[in-house]
Amino acid sequence: MTRPMTAAHTSVLHPDLTPAQRDCLDVLPLTGNHVVTGPPGSGKSLLAAHRAVHLALTGRPTLLLSRSNLLRQLLRDTLQGLTVPGAPIEAATVHGWVLRHFGYGAPRTQDGWFDWTALTHQAAATLGQNEAATPHLVVDEGQDLSPGFYRLVRLAAASVTVFADECQRLTETNCTLTEITDALGRSTGRAEVTGNHRNTREIASLAEHFRTGGTRPEMPFRSGALPVVRHYSGNQDVVGHIATMAARHPKDRIGVITNSSRTAADLMRRLERAGLAHQPQLYSSAASSGRYRDLDLARPGVVLVHRASTKGLDFDTVVIADTETDAATDPTSATLRMAYYVMVTRARERLVLGWQGSRLPRHLEGLHGWVQMK
């Protein structure tokens, strides 16, 4: 039997948060629906985990949801450092939660995603049944889900807390903050967390070049090296540069972001032969289990990940390895700019935007002053 988590089981609820982050948590009631906004680096994922812990203290089952499985792994590891064994709390993907709650026959639309309207009707038909098992839901990177999902969870959850940034909408099933609050109901509370505790000023300044909307976030105080736009002669050149950085910074986590699964696989094969101190890791959403599905994101070394799975992650060094794949895209495209805004803000200390070919991609032109060209 699961034993409810109580205040006596946790000596300090959030000792690792900044005063602004603690204030954000403290203003959130333990009842009702809420949307918390903040820019990259403000600590939304960490706050989502703490919020889930707070809700679990009530003794009601609590789920910390994300659309991305890789982010779920990160949130799971964060929860393990915050809670005690037996607490009614876990990290799950939205996909996994729907299948558990509605069964593997849950209705789907033609695109393969869930039919939120049909599921909402199912939830309405059982409203009020088994009230004690109705969970609190905390959603991280909530902008990646559709309004239909939020209309469903309004009925299927005891409360819903969403952490989101509409400047980071990368999925085809995304929504704005207004759409989230409208779907959850007019009484939905709003809160904001500010600050950037991840990036250097130089990295955050480059990210501003790609930001598509919203208010200008506070610039971090911490300074570092300028981001680098680097020309590579081929994938072996990419690997040689990554190996050099890994040797120079042996305790760092290096995230290599690609736009092509084929490129990622090729870089992985080459990195495995490069004699790195730590075995490289590759995440593949196509893998059902094993080394390409379950990663250790806390250990040093190189992690290769597709850009679609980077949301919520951070690395000491980020290498965006194949920016030439965007060369034909309109550089003013909101989708393109949003993708680079997300990728750039994954970097804590160092950032490299790599390209191959004979001409600098158009979206990397005009960055003088923000980057070094190599």
Automatic annotation (TrEMBL):
<dbReference type="InterPro" id="IPR000212">
    <property type="entry name" value="DNA_helicase_UvrD/REP"/>
</dbReference>
<dbReference type="Pfam" id="PF13245">
    <property type="entry name" value="AAA_19"/>
</dbReference>
<protein>
    <submittedName>
        <fullName>AAA family ATPase</fullName>
    </submittedName>
</protein>
<dbReference type="InterPro" id="IPR027417">
    <property type="entry name" value="P-loop_NTPase"/>
</dbReference>
